[in-house]
Structure formats: C-alpha cells, structure tokens
Amino acid sequence: MEQRTLGRTGRPVSVIGLGTWQLGADWGEVQERDALEVLEAAAEAGTTFFDTADVYGDGRSEKTIGAFRRANPALDLVVGTKMGRRVEQDPSQYTLANFRSWVDRSRANLGMDTLDLVQLHCPPSDVYTTEAVYDALDTLVEEGAVRNYGVSVERADEALAAIERGNTATVQIILNAFRLKPLDAVLPAARAAGVGIIARVPLASGLLSGKYSTSTVFPADDHRNYNRSGAAFDVGETFSGVDYDTGLAAAQEFAQLLPAGVEPAQGALAWIIAQEGVSTVIPGARNAAQARANAAAAGRLDLGRAIHDGVTALYDRRFRPTVHSRW
Known about the structure:
Distance between the termini: 31 Å
Shape: globular
C-alpha cells in the first residue's frame, strides 16, 4: 500500500489507516475476537496506522490494539491515540498534570513506553489557542511520554489555530464528499506548514457506503441512533451532521458518479486520498471483510476529473449553503 509521511512525525504511514472507535463503543456490540480479526485483516492488507482514543469503550479500543501489538511484535505500526474527553469539557482541565495522567493510562492500555502520537480530542475551542496547553504537550515530548502530538478538531478555525503552532505534527478533521470545507483553507495551510492531515468520518458514518435506506434500524447503543441531533456529542461526528434522508439521496447521487465496478465506499475513500495534503484516511471496520475492502481503495486512486467536479457540484447543491456553514 502507498505510504505517505505523517506530517511532522516524519513517520511513513499507509494512505488507508484504520479508525477503531467501533472496536470500543458507540457502534453496537463488537466481540473481542472480531475486533482482533479486524486489526489482523487491516495489517495483512498493508494498513500501518491505527487511530484510537482513551474514551473509546473507556479504554477498550486501546487495550485491544495493545493486545494485537503484543501478539505481532514484528509489525511496524504507528498508533495515534487521543485524550481529553473523559472529563468535563472545560479548558481548565487541560493541564500538564492531567495530560500526564491521561497519557500514562493510554501507555498502559497500549503497552507502549512512548506513544507514537497523542491528539487532543476535540477539546473546547479556547484550548487550541492557549499557550500553556502547547507548553504542556511539549513537556510530554521532552519527558519521553510521547513522540509527537496533534489535534483532532470539529471546525476549520480550530485546525488553523493548531497548524500555526510549530510543534503540531498532525490535524485530524472530518473530510468526505459531504464535507468539503477543509479543502478551502485547512489542507493548503497544513501542506505549507508540513502538518499531516488525518481524514476521519470518511464515509459519513456509513452513508457513503450506499448500504443504508430509510428502513435501516440502528441499535440503541449506536451513535447513529442516539446522536443524530447532537444530543451526546458534536453532531458532525454522526452522518457528518447532515440530515439522514438528505444524506441517503446524496449517497445515491455519489454512487452514480463512480465508474462501473467501483463500490461506493471504495470510491469515497479514493476521492479523499486524491486530495492534496491528506496523509491518511481512517475508515472504521466492524469485521475483517470491511477492513480488507477499505484497504483495497488504495488501488483506485485515479477517479478522473469529472468525478471530482461532480462531487463539488453535489456538495454545492445539497450541503454548502446550509448545514456545513459552521464547519
């Protein structure tokens, strides 16, 4: 699989990574055996970047990755975790003492003396512009607890604030065919600064897979059921914040843009990979077959100019004037 440099980490990572939110919680139940099979299938397909967070299953996702790493010590993997969502979302919580505590917990969960990458996990907006926060993150690097740090953001202005900091290695941001705003300023700024872009929610929580319909029922413990209005966390994390029925119609239009034989999910991933400045994209997978199918998208990079123009037209017609104005 194609490898790209992950921003200021300097580390090569697979252009298709693996998001592991679903291995912890909020996507319905996943058995430990199935979770390990997902990791194994992704690694066998060439995936070398796993993204997780301390809050996914309250550490379950991290622990599963830790177990997989112990069982496969020869694999050259880069693991990015996230911190900050296990406490009340108040900027005063983002202190060096808390960072040390959170990082130590993740190090134990993952079985890593030094974390490859730790990302602030969509904190309050003021955190991105607080000097003491970056001083604390720099201290973690100096102490050897982490090699590099980055941020995960909800909004473009948050990403731009973090990119201005000289030691921000990566920015993780929602980017897909239903959310193009990062292309306007964030990706150009990241390219200029040498900051890596980790594209998350690439399938708009599955909408772009083309597998859902108005009759699809999501389990009660799946965020696509309980967070459609943003009741639990930022609505952008669920279906990219778009109205479900509108998203279904848009997904059908997207599928019609693709060449014959290209599955919608693979086409959606290939479209993201083709955006200049993207380091890696992190689709999730609930089973080994999905992990392998996602990885296969790395071989479908050239979708053609007409498809890229079609995605822009689709976005402009259905989304740009309304729901995405604040993102």
